[in-house]
Amino acid sequence: MSAATSPAPDVTNREPLRTAVTSRFLRVCAWISFVLNTLIIATGGAVRLTGSGLGCPNWPLCAPGSLVPTEELSYHSLIEFGNRTISGPLLIAALLVAIASWRLRGQRRDLPVISTVVLGLVLLQALIGGIIVWLHLNANLVGIHYIISLALVCITAAYLARMYEAPGPRESVAPKGFTILTHITTFVMAITVVFGVLTTGSGPHSGDATIQRDGVDAGLMSHIHAWPGYAALALTLALLVWAASRRLRPLRWTIALLAVLVVQILIGVYQARNGLPELAVGVHMVLAALTAATMTIVVLRLKRPALVS
Predict the structure, then answer these.
(1) E strands within 80-179?
(2) What SS3 state is found at 209?
(3) Which residues of the chain have pLDDT under 50?
(4) Which element (helix H / strand E) includes 305?
(5) Domain range spanning residue 264?
(6) Which residues make Cβ contacts (< 8 Å) with residue 66, sequence separation at least 6?
(7) What residue intervals traverse the membrane (predicted)?
(8) E strand or H helix that includes residue 184
(9) What is the pTM assigned to this prediction?
């Protein structure tokens, strides 16, 4: 009998679940880190969609001899510089979370590792952002830049999920078949994201009017991008039916996943049929990250902190 259908475990001779040991300061910083990693996708999208990618033609300075935009630069420089400005608080938040997490390493091993990965990726993002400016918005590097940002949203979401749960070993609470289907859904969503990035790389929003795209047919890529998206929707519906019928632990987050995925698909269809309006494309970019983050939580809900014998 699977863990999901077995009777409630006998806890007569077991200790209660160990509680989380995180401080309020750490929780606030972790939420700020998640929000800023999501926000920088929105501002990065604004840079690209308004053609402001080279608004600050240099990096780390905005213009020769000036860290901030000069009067000679256009409003594009303000948009680009605004995106850069978020990097500072984002780095500070990641650093504070990492320091606070390492102070808990005696009680927890998961949070220090996750926070260190986040800090490393934030530093990598800053470097890649500079290289992108130096290489005049290379489409492939811009795509990698976005994927790392999306991964950061997922990892910071995972940190939040683990932060509120007890430390120590975890045990599976879902049938093996449901777990396998969840991972298949995750894989299909990852493919959807990759093709979405390639589709954007072939579309009209290059970040600057002088930048040439990668030459791939944008119409064809939009169809290829849609196929795994619809497959992910079907798989998510299957997960929801299964989770609801067996009252599985991931049920509530699977409902959230379906909701955000449906909105994401509707916006995708709208933008494809209306000439890729900038606002719709920007919302689509942010929702892709939030969809992936929700999928991450669904995966984490396949297990729970184990009872201590």
Answers:
(1) 170-172
(2) coil
(3) 1-18, 206-212
(4) strand 303-305
(5) 171-309
(6) none
(7) 28-49, 86-104, 116-137, 143-161, 173-198, 224-243, 255-273, 279-300
(8) helix 176-202
(9) 0.85
